[in-house]
User: Fold DUF3048 domain-containing protein from uncultured Microbacterium sp.
Amino acid sequence: MNHRRRRLLAVTALTAAALLLAACAPTSTASPSATPRVTRSAEPTPSPTPTPTPTRVVQTAPLRGTVVQDAAALGPALSAKIDNHPDARPQWGLERTDIVFEELVEGGITRYVAVWHSDVPAQIGPIRSIRPMDPDIIAPFGGIVAYSGGQGRFVRMMKATDVHNAIHGGADDRFMYRTTKRTAPHNVIVEARKLRARYATLAPPAVQFLFAPRGHAPIFGEDAAGMDVRFARDSARSWRWDAGSAAYLRSQNGRADVDASGKRLRATNVVVLRVAIDWSYGIVPRTVMVGGSDAWISTGGRVIHGRWSKQSQTSPITLTNSASGEIRLAPGNTWVELVPTSGSISVVG
Assistant:
């Protein structure tokens, strides 16, 4: 009896000790509502999408055949009647033209129809009055024509085309002024860039001449040093090939022809057209531009004898060889000499 009692007391004592130890154990300080930490692998940071490089559209200047910046292939052509009287020389802007036409006017002297598109200077001039052949020359280019006026019948002929007429003394007079560096009437200057910007939404010109591919001059024709032409007794012009600059250098009446900056006038292509003259306007000669005749095309130090033709007022001039294939020019600027049948044309060299 005493033995069983001692075992019971021992068990009771051990149980009490276990409870006392449990009560004295330290408790956790974590809040029962704390969210357990979850370990996650790092998510990759997405790489930014690269901005695509704009693709430059290769543009070709329609009047030069050269590769140009996009803006230079847009916008309208600006044509102008440029004075070539000795008192008007040297002129402003001729060295930056795309195409120049030289035509016979009264008294055996010449004037220019100059066309700018891919490289328009700030000022051009001096400008003079319109003539009866000018609508046929300018209409294919569209855009704008600047001139100082003219006989009413000639002005009406020019206004009958789709070309915007900017006439000195008219609505666009704010783009023109008289320079003190020349005497009247050889002193009307056009602020070309401002005038063209005013009508920037007009369509660019159509291609006028075909150009050789890959920027090379055609390989056909005969080697020649250049061309000599004469419009009248006192209107002699010459062009000489300069291989160093790959251009033809211009002279008038035996003297180097320069612009207002002193630079020699030059052309990549010189196109000489034999033309008839209509005298139905009295003393004012009208170069007949719709039709065709002989042509001499100088480019790359060679001369090709062919034919020119123009089907209507708005159509461009077509140049063909003896096999009726169209002649291509070298990419660059072009001067077109409209030599009357009474004048002379000579291939040099």
Helices lie at 2-24, 134-138, 152-159, 192-198. The two ends are 154 Å apart (CA to CA). Residues 59-348 form a domain with the YerB-like fold fold (CATH 3.50.90.10). The chain has a mean pLDDT of 87.
